C-alpha cells in the first residue's frame, strides 16, 4: 500500500487489482473513445485510508483530480450558475462485487438555481430530492422509513409521475417538490442533529467516507464471506460527472444488450425509461419500454437517431470488451453516455453462438472462443430441456441421474412401457428401482423415474448409457403398482397419465412441460469442429452395445474406450444362458452354456466393429460378480429353478454361495477370469471371430483392444494374457486368417497403479477406471456414500464430490505415479481414462496435463469432453509457451 | 567355470557354492579334527564337465587326488593284498538336496582276496555283492527287478541274515555269496552286453559319470523344479575311503542326535545296526537298536567305550556346526568314523531349548540364538496343541481361524455353553455362524467351530481376541440345532458329546484328543528376555476390554496399540443402549442414549488405564457401521421393536436405511464421527474422564492416545480434532484437573497414506491399519476372498495371502510413502502398525526397516512379534554394520 494518494483519470485506471473492476472496465471503454462522462478513479488502497480517516486522508490529490474533472467537463462543483454534478460509484477490488452508487452529488440549495438553468426548476428539485433520499440513509445513517413517512405526507406523484420530457413543469409541481425537500431535510436534522450537508464538497467527502466505512464494517465483511466473496477485498471509487437522465429534450436511462441473451443472435435489445436515472428501471416504479421495435414508446420509434448512436456505442463497447456486453447508458438531451458495460449474462446456447460469431467476426481467435465456453453448458445442446420460461408443477424431487427431459404417459412396468412404445407414445417408466429385467422397457421408454437408488443405481447407469433422462431416489413419491397408482406432490397419477421427467433438475413434473429441443447444428457444430482441431487427446465413448456405438459414432468420437460386455448378457434369452452357466456343475456344463452365448456376443462384436470401422474399440472382459445375474427375491429364484428344471434348493444354495459382503471388493473382474477360465475364453473367442468377420465385411483390418478388469497383480495379467493368446492362436488356425489385437489393463485398484511398471511390460495399454479407483483410494463405496456425501460437501470435508470431479490430490497422484511407471515399463504404452470423470472438464484437463492419450466417457458427454480436451490443449500450450526460454 | 579341474582335500572344501553342501559340512568336521575317513571333494563345475565328457574330463587331477588319498589311508586302489575301498557321495550345490551314494567301490574279483584278508571272505563277498546291487542300476542302467529275481533264485538270507560280527563265516555262506555274485554279474552281462567293470578305477569313473549324468538329465531337473529346488543347481562329489561297517570286531553303522529332537534336552540318543553300512538301518531289513540305555543290545551296554568315543565325536560335531546335530557314523572294528553331521531336525519346543542352551553354554551369542528360532514356532509354546503323536479322527476341515486346541462337550448355543461352563466343563461351541449375541457364550467356551465364515468372520475375530481355538467355514458338517444334532465325518454328535477343535490345523476331531500343554517358563522365558533386550521396536497389543488388557500385560507388551471401542458395546445391557442411540430421533435423543453408555465406557477405560499403568494406550473411536449393532433377522427386529416399545415399521425402516451394499466402504469410522458428532463426543468424554480418574487412582499421569479411523482427508482429522479438543477443555474445567492426550490417525485408506504429510501436521501419531489398507489397495474384501484365495495362492497369482503377510510391493510401498511424508509433516510423528500383520514375522521385519516405532498385534501373538522384532533389529544392525564405511 502506498502512503501517497492514488487517484487517476478513468482512462488510466485499467489495473483492476489497484482500482477495482468497475474502474478497470470504464478505463477500457474510455480508451476506446466511447461517449462517457469524464471522471477519475480512487484506488482501493485509498479506499481503505478513507474508511479509517475520512476523505481528508486523500489530501490535495482529490482536489487536483476534481480540478481536472471540472476542467474536462467545463463546469465547477458548487458553481452557482452552471454547477458540476457528480456520481460516486463503488469499484470493488478483485474477488468481490460492488456496492450501490450515490448520484447527483453537488445539487443543494446553493446550486439549485444553477441546475435549474440547465434542466428546469422541477427537474433540478427532483434531482435534489433524489440526492437526499439516497444520500441520507447511506451517508448519514438516517432511517429510510422516517424519510418515506415524511414523503407520504406530501403528494405521491413526486417521483413516479414525472412528466414526459418536453412538457413544461407546472409551478405547482416545483412547489410541491420544494415542500418535500424541506420535509426530508427536517427529518435529517431531527435524526442526525445536523442539517443536510450544505456544500457539494461536503457531500462528496461524506459519500466517499460513508461508503468506504460501510464496506470495511464487520457486517459487510461477513456478508461478503457468506456470499463466497473475498472478505478482504478492497473498495475503490469511480467519481464521474453526472450525465443527467432528467431534464429537457430526450432524457432517460436504460440498459442495452449487444446480442440476444437467450439465443446469442447479433441483435441489439434492451429497455429504457424516459426521464429516469441509474436504477430507476429496476426499481419498478414505472414500466420501462423496449429500445427497439416499432411500438409507440420504443426508442427506435421515438428517436431513431438516438438509437443509432446508442447502437454504435454498444458496438464500440463490445469491441472494447471483446465480448457481448450489457451496457448501462444515460441519454441527456439526446446525447448518449455509457455508464458501464459488463459481459452479457447469457444462457448456454447463447454462449456458444456468441463465441462462434465473435470468432467468425474476427474479434476473437478460435482458441479464445473455445476457452469462452464452460463445457458443461453443452448439456443443453445435447438433450431436450424443459423451457426455463414455462411454469412447472413439481410433483417429486430426487437425484439428477441422467440429463435431458421428456414427457409421456406413466408406465409402471417395463411391459407397459413396451406397449406404449408400440403405440408410438414413449412412456415415462416409474419404478421403485430397476433391474436387468427392466432393460428392454428402459430402451423404449422416454425417461425413467425411480423411488430408490443413487447415482450408480441400475436405473441411473443404464439411463446415462441410453442418454435417457432419469431421476432416481424420489423419496416422497408413493408407488402402488398393484393398484396402478402413483401418488406424488399431493396428486394421483394412473398408468397413462402424462408426466414430465426433468433429468437436469432432478424433478418430476405434472403434465407435459414445454420443451426446448437439442441443437446439434449451427454454432454448436462449428464449435465442435474447432474443438477437434485444437485438441491433442483422443475422446472415446463408453459404448456397451451396437446401439450405443451408433450413438457414439454420431457424436464423432475417436473410438470406443470401454465396452462393458456384461451389458450384452441382460436380454431375456441371453440372461437365461448366463444363468445356466452360473448354475452349471463343472467346466464342461459351463462351456456348454457359454457356447450358447458365444454367437450372440460374436454378432454384437461384429456389429460394433463394423459401426466403428477404422476406429479402435476397447472391450472389457466380464467384470461384475456372478450374483448380479441371478434374481434376488426368493420367488424369482423359485421361478428360475422351475424354468431351468433344477431343484430350487440348488439354485438357492448357489445364490447363497455367490452372495458377498462387499461385492465391490469381491469375486469379480479378473478374479473371475482367473478362477473360471471358460468365461474369458468364450469372450476372447467371440472377439477374435468377430474381428475376422468384421475385417472381411469391411475389407479393413480390425484390431480389437481387450481390457482386463480389476487387476491387482502383474501375474493376473500374464496368466490371462497367455490364455487369450492361446485362444487367438486357435482362432487363427480355425479361420486360417491372421489378425492382431492388443491386451491391456484396466487400472482401478491402487495396487495396479503402484505396480504399473511391471504391468505395462505386458500390457499394450493402461486404461484408468477412475470410478473404482476413487472408491478404493478413499475406501468409499459410491453407492453407500449418499448418507453423508451432502454433509461432507457442505462442511467442506470434500471440496467436491470425488465421483464427479477427479480428486487430483489423492486419486490424481496415483494416476501420475502409474503414468510415470507405466511409461518406464513400456515407453509407448497407450494411456486412457474410462471412468465417468472422462466427461468432467476439470478431470479432462488433469488428463491432458498427465499426458494421457485419450479419455472415454458416455457418448452423450463426448461433446463436453471434446471441448474440455480442446481447452486443456490450448491452456497447456499456453503454459508451455509462457514457460519457454524465449518467453522467460 | 574354470577349465582346470577343481579337486581338493576334504578339509579344504569349505566353500559350499563350489563343492556342494555336503563337502562343505565334511570340511568343517575335518577341520575340527574329528575322526573321519580321508577323502577329497570334486567341485560342481567339474561335476558338470563329468556329466558331458565323463570322468576323463578331470584329467590327471583325479589321479593326483587319488594318490594323496591312498597315501593318507596307507592303501592303494586295486591293490591285491590290502586294497583301498571308496565311497562316492553326491554333494549338491546350493538350492538343492543331494542324490544317493555308491559305496564299496574297489572290491572286485581282483581285490576280493585282499579285502577278505582284512574282513574275512564272507564279509568281502558281501561287500562285493552290495557294490553290484547298488552300482549296476545307477551306473549301468541295469533293471533292479532283474537283479532281484536273480537273487531270489539263490538263498534269501544272503543280505538279511549276515551273522553277528565275530562269528566266523561258514564256508557255505561264502560259497552262497559267490553264487549270488555270479548270478548278478550274469544279469549285468546280459542286460548291458558287457561284464561288470573289472577294475576299481573303472568303477570309480563310471560311478562319477553316471551320477553326474543322472543329475543333469531333464527328468532330474524337472524333479528338482517340482520339489521347489533350483533346477540349475550343480552337483559335486565327495570321494572318501570306506569305513567298513561289516567285518570283524565291533562293526556297524547308525545315526546319533546330539540332543533330544522333541524336547531339546542335552541327551545323546540314536540308533545303530551291527554289521551294517550307510542306509541299512533305514532300509528296515533288520531292526536297528538304540545307542543308549541299559537294554541288552544297546551300544551303551555292549561297548561303553565305543559309546564314549561316539559321544565325544558328536560333541565335537556339535561344536564344529555350532548347533545340535544328527550324526551319521560307522564303527569299524571298534573305531568311530563320522560320515556326516546335519543340523538336528527338531520340534518347536526343542528349537527354543537348544538355542537357549547353546547360548548359555557359550557356543552362540544371544543374538545368534535369537536368529535361530522361526518366531511362528512359538505358537506351540503359547497354546495347548494336539499331541502330534496321537491318532486323530478328523470329522471336519475348515479354516484355521485361531490357534490352539481344546476338547469339550458340544454346545449348540451360547446359552448351552454357559451351562456347561457353570458345571466346570468348558464346551466347544458349534454354530452356523456367530454374532454379537453369542459373545458371552464364546467367552466361557473352550473353543469355537462354525460352518460358515472366513478369517474375518465374527467368530474368527472374537476367538483370536480371546485366544480361544477356532475353526470356521467347516462346510462339510451339518448342523441341526433344533434337533440338537451335529452330523460330521459320517458320525452324529448330540449336545454334550465330546469333540476336539484343533485351531492350528483347522480341524474338528471326534473325542478328546491328547494335548501338549503350553510352556511359558524355562527356555521360552529366557528367550523372551533376550528378545526384549535386542529389539528396537515396541510391541503393543490389540486389547479391546480390560480382560484383554490383563492378558496383554501378562505377555509383557509395551502398551495397547489398538483398543477397538465398539467391542465394549456388545454386552446385553450396553447393546440395548447402543440400539436406542441408533433408533433415536435427533441429536438430543441420541445424546440421552449415549449418556447411558458413558459410565460403562468410562469404567472400562479407567480399568484399562490402571491395568496398563505407565504404558501408552491407543483408543480407536467407533469404527463399524451402525447396522452392525442391529439384529439381522426379521424376527429379531420385531423383538427389538417390542423391547424398545417402538413400532416395528420404524425399526425396519431404520435398518433398511442403514443397510449398505459395501459396508467396508460405507458409513463408518470418521464418517460416522463427522456426521453424528454425539458419538465421538461421548467417547472422548469417557476417555478424558477415565484418564483423570485413573491418574488419581494410580498417582501417575495417564496420556491417552485417541485414534481416528478410516480417515481419507486431512479435513476429517482437523474437524474431529477440534471437537475432541473442545470436549477435553470441558472436562478440564468440570474436573478442575489438567491432563494431556494425543490425537492420531489410523491410516487405512490409500488416500490417507498419500496425504500423510498434511495429516501428520495435525496428528501426533499415525497407526497403519494394514487389514483395511490391504483390502483397499487390492480392491479385495477379506471376507469375500475365500472363493478364490486358495486358487490364487496355488497358481502363484499371490505369492502369499496378503492378509497374512504384508504385501511389500503394493501395500508396503504405500506404507513407505506415508512414513516419508508423515515425517516431513511432523518429524517426530509416532509410527505404528496395528493390523494383524503386527504378528507376522516378515511384516515385522518390514516395519523395522521402514523405521516404525512399534507394531501392535493380538496379545497371543505378542511373543511372536517380540522375537520377530528382535530378529529384525539384529539383522538391521548387521546390515548397517556391513554397509558401514569401516566394513566396506
Binned, the helix content of chain A reads 40-55%
Measured by residues with Cβ under 8 Å of the partner chain's Cβ, the largest interface is:
A-B, 48 and 48 residues
Order of neighbouring strands in the sheet with most strands of chain A: 14-24-23-16-17-18-19-15
Q: Compute the number of helices of chain A.
A: 36
Mean pLDDT across residues of chain A: 90
Q: What is the CA-atom radius of gyration of chain A, in angstroms?
A: 35 Å
CATH first level of the largest domain in chain A: Alpha Beta
In total, the number of domains of chain A comes to 4
Shape of chain A: elongated
InterPro entries (chains A, B): ATP_grasp_subdomain_1, PEP-util_enz_mobile_dom, PEP_util_AS, PEP_util_C, PEP_util_CS, Phosphohistidine_dom_sf, Pyruvate_phosphate_dikinase, Pyrv/PenolPyrv_kinase-like_dom
Enzyme class (chains A, B): transferase
Function (chains A, B): Catalyzes the reversible phosphorylation of pyruvate and phosphate.
Binding site for Mg(2+) (chains A, B): 748, 772
Amino acid at each position: 500500500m502506498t502512503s501517497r494518494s492514488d487517484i487517476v483519470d478513468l482512462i488510466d485506471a485499467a489495473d483492476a487489482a489497484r482500482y477495482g473492476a468497475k474502474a478497470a472496465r470504464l478505463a477500457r471503454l474510455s480508451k476506446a473513445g466511447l461517449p462517457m462522462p469524464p471522471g477519475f478513479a480512487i484506488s482501493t488502497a485509498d479506499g481503505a485510508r478513507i474508511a479509517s480517516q475520512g476523505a481528508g486522508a486523500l489530501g490535495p490529490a482529490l482536489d487536483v483530480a476534481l480540478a481536472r474533472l471540472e476542467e474536462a467537463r467545463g463546469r465547477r462543483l458548487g458553481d452557482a450558475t452552471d454547477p458540476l454534478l457528480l456520481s460516486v460509484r463503488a469499484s470493488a477490488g478483485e474477488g468481490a462485487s460492488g456496492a450501490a452508487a450515490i448520484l447527483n452529488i453537488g445539487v443543494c440549495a446553493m446550486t439549485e438555481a444553477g441546475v435549474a438553468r440547465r434542466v428546469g426548476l422541477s427537474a433540478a428539485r427532483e434531482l435534489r430530492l433524489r440526492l437526499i433520499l439516497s444520500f441520507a440513509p447511506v451517508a448519514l445513517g438516517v432511517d429510510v422509513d422516517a424519510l418515506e413517512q415524511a414523503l407520504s405526507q406530501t403528494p405521491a406523484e413526486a417521483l413516479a409521475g414525472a412528466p414526459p420530457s418536453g412538457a413544461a413543469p407546472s409551478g405547482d409541481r416545483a412547489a410541491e417538490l420544494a415542500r418535500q425537500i424541506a420535509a426530508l431535510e427536517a427529518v435529517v436534522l431531527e435524526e442526525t442533529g445536523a442539517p443536510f450537508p450544505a456544500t457539494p464538497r461536503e457531500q462528496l467527502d461524506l459519500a466517499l467516507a460513508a461508503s468506504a466505512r460501510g464496506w470495511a464494517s464487520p457486517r459487510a465483511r461477513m456478508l461478503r464471506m457468506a456470499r463466497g466473496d473475498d472478505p478482504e477485498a478492497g473498495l475503490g471509487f469511480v467519481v464521474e460527472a453526472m450525465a443527467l437522465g432528467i431534464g429537457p429534450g430526450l432524457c432517460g436511462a436504460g440498459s442495452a444488450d449487444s446480442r440476444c441473451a437467450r439465443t446469442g443472435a447479433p441483435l441489439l435489445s434492451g429497455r429504457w425509461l424516459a426521464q429516469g436515472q441509474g436504477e430507476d428501471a429496476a426499481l419498478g416504479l414505472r414500466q420501462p419500454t423496449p429500445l427497439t421495435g416499432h411500438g409507440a414508446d420504443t426508442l427506435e420509434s421515438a428517436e431513431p437517431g438516438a438509437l443509432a448512436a446508442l447502437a454504435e456505442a454498444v458496438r464500440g463497447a463490445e469491441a472494447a470488451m471483446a465480448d457481448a456486453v450489457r451496457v448501462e447508458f444515460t441519454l441527456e438531451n439526446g446525447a448518449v453516455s455509457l455508464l458501464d458495460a459488463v459481459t452479457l449474462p447469457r444462457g448456454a446456447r447463447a454462449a456458444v453462438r456468441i463465441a462462434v460469431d465473435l470468432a467468425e467476426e474476427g474479434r476473437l481467435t478460435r482458441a479464445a472462443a473455445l476457452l469462452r465456453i464452460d463445457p458443461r453448458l453443452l448439456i443443453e445442446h445435447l438433450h431436450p430441456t424443459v423451457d426455463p420460461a414455462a411454469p412447472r408443477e413439481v410433483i417429486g424431487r430426487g437425484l439428477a441421474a441422467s440429463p435431458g427431459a421428456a414427457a409421456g404417459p406413466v408406465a409402471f412396468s417395463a411391459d407397459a412401457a413396451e406397449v406404449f412404445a408400440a403405440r408410438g407414445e414413449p412412456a415415462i417408466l416409474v419404478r421403485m428401482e430397476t433391474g436387468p429385467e427392466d432393460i428392454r422397457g428402459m430402451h423404449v421408454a422416454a425417461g425413467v423415474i425411480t423411488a430408490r437408488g443413487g447415482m450408480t443405481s441400475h436405473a441411473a447407469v443404464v439411463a446415462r448409457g441410453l442418454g435417457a433422462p432419469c431421476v432416481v431416489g424420489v423419496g416422497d413419491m408413493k408407488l402402488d403398482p398393484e393398484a396402478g397408482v402413483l401418488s406424488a406432490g399431493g396428486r394421483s397419477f394412473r398408468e397413462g397419465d402424462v408426466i414430465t421427467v426433468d433429468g437436469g433438475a432432478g424433478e418430476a413434473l405434472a403434465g407435459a412441460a414445454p420443451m426446448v429441443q437439442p441443437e446439434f447444428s449451427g454454432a454448436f457444430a462449428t464449435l465442435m469442429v474447432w474443438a477437434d482441431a485444437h485438441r491433442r487427446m483422443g475422446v472415446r465413448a463408453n459404448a456397451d452395445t451396437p446401439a450405443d456405438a451408433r450413438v457414439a459414432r454420431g457424436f464423432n468420437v475417436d473410438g470406443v474406450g470401454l465396452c462393458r460386455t456384461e451389458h450384452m448378457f441382460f436380454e431375456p434369452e441371453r440372461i437365461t444362458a448366463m444363468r445356466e452357466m452360473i448354475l452349471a456343475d463343472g467346466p464342461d456344463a459351463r462351456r456348454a452354456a457359454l457356447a450358447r452365448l458365444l454367437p450372440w456376443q460374436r454378432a454384437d462384436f461384429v456389429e460394433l466393429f463394423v459401426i466403428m470401422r477404422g476406429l479402435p474399440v476397447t472391450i472389457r472382459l466380464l467384470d461384475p460378480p456372478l450374483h448380479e445375474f441371478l434374481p434376488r427375491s426368493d420367488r424369482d429364484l423359485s421361478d428360475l429353478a422351475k424354468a431351468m428344471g433344477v431343484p430350487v434348493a440348488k439354485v438357492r444354495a448357489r445364490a447363497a454361495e455367490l452372495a458377498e459382503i462387499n461385492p465391490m471388493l469381491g469375486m469379480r473382474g479378473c478374479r473371475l477370469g482367473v478362477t473360471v477360465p471358460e468365461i474369458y475364453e468364450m469372450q476372447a473367442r467371440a472377439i477374435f471371430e468377430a474381428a475376422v468377420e468384421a475385417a472381411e465385411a469391411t475389407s479393413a483390418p480390425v484390431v480389437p483392444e481387450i481390457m482386463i478388469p480389476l487387476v491387482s497383480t502383474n501375474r493376473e495379467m500374464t496368466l490371462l494374457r497367455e490364455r487369450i493368446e492361446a485362444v487367438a492362436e486357435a482362432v487363427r488356425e480355425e479361420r486360417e486368417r491372421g489378425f492382431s489385437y492388443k491386451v491391456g489393463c484396466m487400472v482401478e485398484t491402487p495396487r495396479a497403479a503402484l505396480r504399473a511398471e511391471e504391468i505395462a511390460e505386458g500390457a499394450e495399454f493402461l486404461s484408468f477406471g477412475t470410478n473404482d479407483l476413487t472408491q478404493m483410494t478413499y475406501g468409499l463405496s459410491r453407492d453407500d456414500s449418499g448418507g453423508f456425501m451432502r454433509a461432507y460437501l457442505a462442511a467442506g470435508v470434500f471440496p467436491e464430490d470425488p465421483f464427479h470431479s477427479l480428486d487430483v490430490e489423492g486419486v490424481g497422484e496415483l494416476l501420475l505415479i502409474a503414468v510415470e511407471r507405466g511409461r518406464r515399463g513400456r515407453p509407448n504404452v497407450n494411456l486412457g481414462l474410462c471412468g465417468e470423470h472422462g466427461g468432467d472438464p476439470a478431470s479432462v484437463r488433469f488428463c491432458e496435463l498427465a499426458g494421457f492419450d485419450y479419455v472415454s466417457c458416455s457418448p452423450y458427454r463426448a461433446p463436453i469432453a471434446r471441448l474440455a480436451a480442446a481447452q486443456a490443449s490450448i491452456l497447456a500450450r499456453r503454459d508451455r509457451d509462457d514457460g519457454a526460454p524465449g518467453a522467460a
